[in-house]
Amino acid sequence: RYPKYKWVRAIGPLTVTTLAIVSTWIFDLQDKEIPIVESIPVGLPSTTFSSWFPLHDFSGLLVTVLSITLVGFMESIAIAKQLASKHKYEVDSSLELMGLGVANIAGAMFHAYPVTGSFSRSAVNNESGDNLAAIVISGVLGLLDFDEAAYLWKVHKFDFGVWMIAFLGTMFLGVEIGLAIAVGVSLLLVTYESAYPHTAVLGRLPGTSVYRNVKQYPEAECYDGIVMARIDAPIYFANTQHVREKMQKYVDKAEGTHKHARPQFLVIELSPVSHVDTSALHMLHDMFHHYQSQGIQLCFTNPNLTVMDKFRSSGLVDEIGRDHFFVSIHDALDWCLNMMDSKEISQLENVDTAEMGLHTNGVAANGFASNGVTHTTPDTSEGTEEEQLG
User: Fold this and answer.
1) Which site in 24, 63, 290, 326 is 20 to 30 Å from 273, CA atoms measured?
2) pTM > 0.85
3) Which residues have C-beta within 8 Å of that of residue 177, sequence separation ≥ 6?
4) Which secondary-structure segment (H or E) carries 388?
């Protein structure tokens, strides 16, 4: 907060370290069975190449190695991102992992412990201006971000729940188990959210060619006989049933709202869909045949290149028809409206033709036509003159 007093942050840890050293010397704490560092060996330790191969008890080491790797990387990237956020710089997770790998390979050559980015010592260095490496507890306390917990509780309860599970699990069950539980819960939440993706009914904003969620923009215009919907996630085996049910729900709702105009077209916006798997392709095939049997034409707009390639290779494009794939939802809407107008005109022409046929049949019942002239037969319903007089 006060840059010119930055040096003051080092006084506390420096003072305590100095007092500890002096106290150890004055009161001869080593003789009172208090352990001290004593002397530090000089030079490099011996190499370990001779013990690398053959590798004994690989299966027994595998669990330990995976635990060390997971915990080490998670701790390193957690503290790195925390400090990066505080000091406004970016962290590359791939480079962090690569750096840890190189450091561990080099350390393994000389009997070193597994290397990781230390949470506590990084906190100490940060608090002391990167000048000291002592007073670990004091430094770590500065990284307990209670404001972030309050923010998560306010903004997203699920994220707060994961935060609390990771915190309590690590505190009471250990780092490995706590992190494993937190990662498992996070994966479950991701799976749940992807299995129930967001979908929306779209409407046209008045006077524009922009289409938005009708719940978010109540003034958006919908059209009788046309249902426009958007899927906001990749479609894969876990969410195909949900997507199909949502589309059917929108069609049923439109049919109930406009009983005089049954849905004739279902237009699905695919721009947010980055991926489809074979389960999704089978589901779309089934949807097409289902709606076709109900007289509803299925249309798609703006699928990306990857999705469109899968549509082609699966035969969906040829089955639905290439003229039912559009660049934008506005183009699809224009085509649907034109088709509805053409169908209405055709129906009116058929009605006129039928009425003309009925008129012609009525004329033929009372006479016959020749060369455009209609001749009527004599009416004998009144009888002859003699019969009338007689």
Assistant:
1) 290
2) no
3) 169
4) helix 385-389
